[in-house]
From TrEMBL:
This is Galactokinase. It comes from Pelolinea submarina. Its EC number is 2.7.1.6. GO terms for biological process: galactose metabolic process. Residues 97-184 form the GHMP kinase N-terminal domain. Residues 14-62 form the Galactokinase N-terminal domain. Belongs to the GHMP kinase family. GalK subfamily.
Length: 391
């Protein structure tokens, strides 16, 4: 991985080339991995998450007017917009994440200052490690560091989520932005997505979290995620007719669901079954990690993967090939898909003393079976967004 010094030099050089000066403000916001809790966040349940040591940096320099210019070392193009009149990007479409944050902050009456900015990220895009949330949270961090107001980290997460929901048009839950803003180094967070409060879960030693990236092209029409959400809502609509205390799938039990099976469309039934079980697995995994029951942690991950494959149907053939490679590898306790599914990374729980042999085996096996070069690497839990330097 690129060192901080190399990264700084790379950014400074490009910044000078683009804007003719040096940046004066540096911020970072991390990506995240969900250890458990697929599609439980918008069902107002629990997720077990950690911010990771792969992050997004933005280097910036205030301009003294209301213009924002933003470029990225990870993507082509330089976007320019006026804070007094924010429109969606016509080209450089990734800048919508930055525009969205500016738009939402201004709607909440935060006074913003224009800047020249350059983004650099070590989070792979669209792999389930939340590069979009890191970009949004880093953007709030830049605006805050240039202003004379402050926002607490939870507000940063919620406003960044709104930017993605309302401006970008992706109806994601809060967990990505929450981890990026609120992560704690050395810990995992058990987040309650109903109250937006979290508990810090200490992790017993001996278990290493590994990212196993399928690097497979995603073939999504864009309807898969909203479709799953709608199916969960449909389940709630029916269950709440029988059980008024059910306001979201978080409130439902498997007993309630199976008792009403005859009234529920079979696909909706499967989706709800998965979410209700997954929600319980989040709590069970938190307990297993805290007590050092690594075999149980692994079993829960495998059950999550199987449910995602058979009930929620968000697993691709490359994910299955990666699962098989991981489960045959030395030191593997278990694994599941990270993020929303449909490709991207698997997160594996591995014996801490087997990292190298695990990595070698998984890469070799997966590449042979899928014909795609896998990326396999350990991640450490990291702190949430912060200002790195103001010069
Ligand atoms: P994920 O959040 O899982 O990585 P998304 O599809 O939600 O996947 O977000 C990925 C998109 O976010 C990218 O395609 C790009 O538009 C934008 N993005 C994230 N980080 C950067 C960056 N460093 N530079 C430019 N665009 C970025
Ligand atoms: Mg995203």
């Amino acid at each position: 991985m690129i060192s901080d010094d190399q990264r700084k030099a790379l950014i400074e050089e490009k910044f000078l080339f683009l804007y003719g000066s040096k940046p004066s403000v540096w911020v970072q916001a991390p990506g995240r991995v969900d250890l458990m809790g697929s599609h439980t966040d918008y069902n107002l349940g629990f997720v077990l998450i950690q911010a990771i040591n792969h992050n997004t940096w933005i280097a910036a320099r205030p301009r003294g007017d209301s213009i924002v210019r933003i470029a990225s070392l990870n993507r082509d193009g330089i976007a320019e917009f006026d804070l007094s009149h924010i429109e969606h990007a016509k080209d450089v479409t990734w800048s919508d994440y930055v525009r969205g944050v500016a738009d939402v902050l201004q709607k909440e009456n935060y006074v913003l200052k224009g800047f020249d900015g350059l983004v650099h990220s070590t989070i792979p895009f669209g792999s389930g490690l939340s590069s979009s949330a890191a970009l949004e949270v880093a953007t709030t961090e830049v605006f805050e560091s240039l202003a004379d107001w402050q926002i607490d980290p939870l507000q940063k997460a919620l406003l960044s989520q709104r930017a993605e929901n309302e401006f970008v048009g992706m109806t994601c839950g809060v967990m990505d932005q929450y981890s990026s803003a609120m992560g704690k180094a050395g810990c995992v967070l058990l987040l309650d997505c109903r109250t937006n409060t979290s508990e810090i879960i200490p992790v017993a030693p001996g278990l290493q979290v590994m990212i196993c990236d399928t690097r497979a092209e995603r073939n999504l029409t864009g309807s898969e995620y909203p479709e799953r959400r709608a199916q969960c809502e449909e389940g709630v609509r029916i269950l709440s007719g029988f059980y008024p205390e059910v306001h979201s799938l978080r409130d439902a039990t498997l007993e309630m669901l199976t008792a009403q099976q005859a009234d529920i469309d079979p696909v909706v039934f499967k989706r709800c079954y998965f979410v209700i079980e997954e929600n319980q697995r989040v709590l069970d995994l938190a307990a297993a990690l805290a007590s050092g029951d690594h075999q149980k942690a692994g079993r829960l991950a495998v059950e999550s993967f199987q449910g995602a494959r058979d009930l929620f149907e968000i697993v691709t053939k490359e994910m299955i090939m990666m699962f098989d490679a991981i489960m045959g590898a030395p030191g593997a306790f278990g694994t599941r898909g990270a993020g929303g599914g449909f490709g991207g990374c698997l997160v594996a729980f591995v014996r801490s003393d087997c990292i190298d042999s695990f990595t070698e085996y998984v890469k070799q096996q997966y590449t042979r079976n899928a014909g795609i070069q896998a990326e396999v690497y350990p991640v450490q839990s990291a702190s949430g967004a912060s200002v790195l330097a103001i010069e």
